[in-house]
TrEMBL record:
Organism: Ciona intestinalis (Transparent sea squirt)
Stretches assigned to the NUP160 middle TPR domain: 458-731
Entry keyword annotation includes Repeat: no
Domain NUP160 C-terminal TPR: 777-1025
Species lineage: Eukaryota, Metazoa, Chordata, Tunicata, Ascidiacea
Keywords: Nucleus, Transport
InterPro entries membership: Beta-prop_Nup120_160, Nucleoporin_Nup160, NUP160_helical, TPR_NUP160_C, TPR_NUP160_M
Domain Nucleoporin Nup120/160 beta-propeller: 4-183
A Gene Ontology cellular-component term: nuclear pore
Annotated compartments: Nucleus
GO biological process, one term: nucleocytoplasmic transport
Superkingdom per UniProt: Eukaryota
Domain NUP160 helical: 205-403
Protein name, as recorded: Nuclear pore complex protein
């Protein structure tokens, strides 16, 4: 035309002439002409940007909204933003090409500086801050728009693939993408072209479909694009779009209700028509929407409407495909919104006429609402910016479990999806639909790529590749929003797998209880979800497993995640639920019970841990858990709880565990007294025999391991053990008061020889290396207790310098007691073990002799007090008390006559050996017990004077003078019994005295003794004669 200037033109390989025009306002126009038909059609292009007022929502801020618009890749290219930034910074344009993140940071920094510079005084700061921000950002936004307008001026048109042109502009290259035929019809294209693309068999239904699309086109023109965009934003966050449309229907009717009613009234079979259109909206039909008739029987579609300008950045293919998909989804979302409005409007307008269709129309509203939800979700997926994933501890932990890396630099989620697994899946789809696909997404492939992307992003299947991408790349914030907001309630595809990923999001955000309950929801549906079974559980779908088995297996896998994150509370909740669903024979039941046990133990919930043990069907798992419980209770010093549990059939295992720990522990340095605990365990159950055996074993260990130089503490422990042993056995029947104690001969073998080989290195027979046992009776235990008490006294005696062995025998103990002056205890030992008391009396006598010559009464009292002797006479000296103690001891010990004689003889020998004068009381007692022996002993030590006196007194006693003093029961005055006198000792004494008669003293003694013996003999003759006379008289 005369008002347009031709910029460039191209002839495509399909006989179409493309012409690029520019009017007087520099607005570009693209037109196409089929050479055969020779008819020009104008192509709808994206409108160039114009300065506009940016509306700031109440929930957003000024910088946030402007940044969204400025850095929208479909509106601005990087060069325009850089130029605007350079102008505002008043710096020359840099030659480097910064990243989008760096460029955004520079813009924010510049705007903050300008806002701070333009701030007024503090009084009006709050009122004008928003205004200054809006003004500053608007100025920069206007500059960006101006530079973008300049960069958008077309300079040429190319046709690289031979079909669809590419417009070369001053700042970038714009790729034109064909729209689907449904949107094309809504834009005014001949609707008859649809018949070749969609399977509508009935011509009447097809006619009604065209009328319905015309109605949608009219409604779109009435409402306008801006209203549809606002409506799409509002509907995306609604649980029920149909209800929202009902609420907004008044505003829609005000536009042009009468014309809409006319169009709707022309539709005949509304049910079949909506069914046909919904069939066209299926994702599987997208592949057919972009096909052009190239076969011999297919008509050629004459019109293509490129409506989108793709701004090329670093990745032309992906960026172009992403932007094209964004435009396609936006158009399709508007289409389904229009259809939902018409459906709701038809329901209201025809309520009386189609009363029997109300339920059907309502179902259509629900079906259309599903499409609204689906395209809203896809719209968010193609436009949402990719979140930044910080390397926090929880995210690192989750990534180490089951998620992948997040190293992509993509700006949007869809870009990142296509650069990862989504791109591989898209290539597979393109190869399936085109044998000529070479792996490169060029301009000719983009329409099919759009269809593939929609198929991958479709929330209702057949795949969950997009949420799986978010999951595997740690985009948990986006994934949680996508599932909770975009898929909430209406999407029922693979619900278990979706819930599983949502639970991971809660886990990432620290919402652990929500994560547990969501995992439980996922587990309840796991048996019916093939996605979850194949990907997470890694099971063969052909494997025959019951639903509850799959559910339990799922919980088992999830438990590992919580355990690695050390979330004990959540593990318990999940394990309890899993156990309630599992059967006793389930292979995972032991794992579940063990997991619950471990976490209960970690939280110190010992009663719950105890119950978890007995829920476990596996004996080995129960043993392991029981061992852990026992050790934990010991560590927390919950001994009372440990003892009072019943343990049912695992009672023996508890005993074995405690015995093993006791035998492996250091008796003195161990934190836990396992023997005492085991003793309490048996006593609590009334098993006094086992309790006694436990204490005795501890006593034996103390005795063997510390036998060299036992301390007072060791002996005290031994004493307590032995007292406990004896006390327990007293509670047992007399016939069972005995113990069986194992004896390892290597304990007593101190030669460092091998227990398995002899000195020559030859292996010993098996029977020689086996442990033996010994029977310990109750009396033996009492005797051991007595010896131990004595050893304790010795160990506690500060004056005792001798080493007290832990396993000292009764004789050794007696010697130590006597050496330390514990004479009373020594007498008890002698009586108990039937030992000779001579050594005791010898040492006691020696102590008394030294006491007589010593001036240190304190030393004498020190050993007297050891025997619990107190002086009753305030004027008595220590030596007198000592001699009285000796006298008392001699009279108390040794009731057997022979013992009396031997004990006195021992004292006598000691006194004589020290040449100490014999005490009168001692001589008085001794001559009554065994005077001849006394005379012999005195004679041996040359005590001639005392010997002579005793011999004279003894013969007088025989002749009837005080015979009781010598223990004589019959004398010559009473001849009822035979009498005798020690003539051998008297003869020997006379012989000695005779040899010493040259001394006057001994001569006198000799005469006295000799005359007394002669007198004794005469008396014997007289008594014998009288006895014979009486005997003759009787006869």
């Amino acid at each position: 035309t005369t008002i347009q200037r031709l910029v460039d033109f191209q002839l495509s390989s399909d006989n179409r002439l493309w012409a690029l025009w520019q009017d007087t306002d520099d607005q570009p126009t693209l037109a196409v002409c089929d050479i055969i038909i020779k008819t020009w059609h104008e192509v709808a292009m994206s409108q160039p940007l114009s300065p506009e007022d940016v509306t700031i929502p109440y929930h957003s801020s000024v910088p946030e909204e402007f940044l969204k618009k400025i850095f929208d890749p479909r509106k601005f290219c990087t060069s325009s933003i850089r130029k605007a930034l350079s102008v505002h910074q008043r710096t020359p344009l840099s030659s480097r090409n910064p990243s989008m993140k760096s460029l955004q940071d520079d813009v924010v920094k510049l705007m903050e500086t300008e806002v701070a510079y333009n701030l007024p005084d503090e009084d009006n700061l709050k009122q004008s801050l928003d205004e200054i921000q809006l003004l500053t950002w608007s100025t920069f936004y206007t500059s960006c728009v101006q530079y973008q307008q300049y960069a958008s001026k077309p300079i040429a048109i190319t046709n690289p693939d031979g079909c669809i042109p590419t417009i070369v502009k001053k700042g970038y290259v714009s790729q034109q993408i064909p729209v689907s035929m449904l949107e094309a019809v809504c834009r005014g294209v001949d609707a008859s072209q649809l018949k070749f693309l969609y399977p509508v068999a009935d011509d009447l239904v097809f006619t009604d479909l065209v009328k319905l699309l015309n109605c949608l086109s009219l409604l779109s023109s009435i409402l306008g694009k801006e209203y549809l965009e606002e409506l799409a934003q509002s509907v995306q966050l609604c649980d029920n779009p149909a209800t929202f449309i009902h609420g907004a229907m008044e505003d829609i009717k005000e536009s042009n209700e009468s014309e809409l009613e006319d169009y709707i009234g022309q539709i005949g079979d509304i049910v079949s028509t909506i069914n046909a259109l919904l069939l066209c909206l299926e994702p599987g039909q997208i592949q057919h929407e972009f096909k052009r008739g190239r076969g011999s029987n297919s008509p050629k579609l004459p019109l293509v409407l490129p409506i989108f300008t793709a701004i090329i950045f670093t990745d032309p293919t992906n960026c172009c495909a992403v932007n094209a998909t964004h435009q396609y989804v936006e158009d399709r979302l508007h289409l389904v919104l229009l259809l939902l409005i018409v459906t709701v409007l038809f329901d209201e307008l025809q309520e009386n006429y189609l009363i029997f269709h109300i339920n059907i129309i309502f179902k259509f509203s629900e079906r259309v609402a599903i499409y609204v939800h689906s395209y809203s979700a896809i719209m968010w997926a193609v436009s949402a910016e990719k979140e930044h994933v910080p390397n926090s501890s929880i995210e690192h932990t989750l990534q180490s479990l089951s998620v992948g890396d997040n190293k992509s630099s993509s700006r949007t989620l869809l870009e990142g999806f296509l650069k990862n697994e989504g791109g591989k899946l898209l290539c597979c789809i393109l190869r399936e639909n085109s044998e000529q696909f070479n792996g490169v997404i060029d301009n000719a492939v983009i329409p099919k790529a759009i269809a593939g992307i929609i198929q991958l992003l479709w929330p209702l299947g057949p795949t969950v590749s997009f949420p799986k991408y978010l999951f595997t790349n740690s985009l948990f914030g986006s994934l949680q929003y996508y599932i909770n907001v975009r898929l909430n309630k209406w999407c029922d595809f693979s619900p278990a797998y979706i819930s599983y990923m949502l639970a991971y999001c809660y886990l990432h955000n620290g919402q652990y209880n929500k994560a547990v309950h969501t995992f439980i929801q996922a587990g309840g549906k796991a048996g019916m979800d093939g996605m979850l079974i194949g990907s997470m559980l890694e099971l063969d779908l052909e494997e025959q497993l019951a639903e509850n088995e799959i559910e339990v297996l799922f919980y088992t896998k999830v438990l590992e995640i919580f355990e690695k994150l050390e979330l004990a509370e959540q593990v318990i909740i999940l394990a309890k639920h899993a156990i309630s669903k599992a059967s006793v024979k389930d292979d995972n039941m032991p794992i579940l019970c063990s997991s619950m046990f471990r976490q209960c133990l970690q939280l110190n919930r010992f009663n719950e841990a105890y119950k978890a043990i007995f829920l476990n069907p596996s004996w080995e798992h129960k043993k392991d858990c029981l061992r852990m419980l026992v050790m934990a209770l010991c560590e927390k010093k919950k001994y009372k709880l440990l003892v009072e549990h019943s343990y049912d059939d695992m009672h023996v295992e508890v005993v074995n565990i405690l015995e093993h720990r006791a035998r492996c522990s250091d008796l003195l340095n161990s934190r836990h007294k396992y023997y005492d605990l085991l003793f309490s365990f048996h006593v609590y159950r009334g098993n006094y025999g086992r309790a006694a055996s436990t204490m005795y074993e501890q006593m034996c260990r103390l005795q063997n391991e510390y036998s060299a130089s036992p301390s007072a503490n060791v002996l005290h422990l031994q004493h307590m053990c032995l007292v406990s042993t004896v006390s327990c056995l007293r509670l047992v029947d007399k016939q069972y008061r005995w113990l069986v104690h194992p004896v390892d001969k290597n304990i007593y073998d101190k030669s460092c020889r091998s227990p398995k080989r002899n000195a020559e290195g030859e292996a010993l027979p098996v029977e020689n290396s086996q442990r033996k046992i010994r029977l310990v009776e109750f009396d033996q235990l009492q005797n051991e207790l007595l010896l131990l008490e004595c050893r304790m006294k010795l160990a506690l005696d500060e004056e005792n310098e001798l080493n007290v062995g832990a396993s000292a025998s009764e004789k050794e103990t007696l010697s130590l007691l006597v050496h330390s002056s514990y004479f009373n205890d020594a007498f008890i030992i002698c009586d108990k073990f039937k030992l000779d008391k001579k050594s005791v009396f010898e040492v006691m006598c020696t102590r008394c002799i030294y006491a007589s010559y010593s001036n240190d009464d304190a030393q004498i009292w020190s050993w007297l007090k050891k025997n619990e002797i107190r002086s009753s006479d305030a004027h008595s000296s220590a030596s007198d008390v000592a001699w009285r103690f000796l006298e008392t001891s001699l009279s108390e010990h040794g009731e057997i006559e022979t013992h009396k004689s031997s004990n006195y003889r021992a004292v006598l020998q000691t006194l004589l050996s020290y040449s100490y004068p014999l005490p009168a009381w001692f001589v008085k007692i001794y001559k009554k017990i065994n005077c001849p022996e006394l005379i012999r002993m005195l004679l041996c030590y040359d005590w001639l004077e005392l010997s002579t006196t005793l011999c004279v007194d003894y013969m007088n006693a025989v002749m009837g003078v005080s015979p009781a003093e010598f223990g004589i029961h019959s004398s010559l005055l009473n001849i009822n019994k035979q009498v005798w006198s020690p003539q051998n000792e008297i003869s020997q004494l006379l012989s000695v005295l005779d040899d010493m008669r040259h001394e006057e003293k001994y001569n006198k003694l000799y005469k006295t003794l000799f005359s007394k013996r002669e007198e004794y003999f005469e008396e014997i003759k007289r008594v014998s004669a009288t006895d014979r006379f009486h005997a003759s008289m009787v006869h």
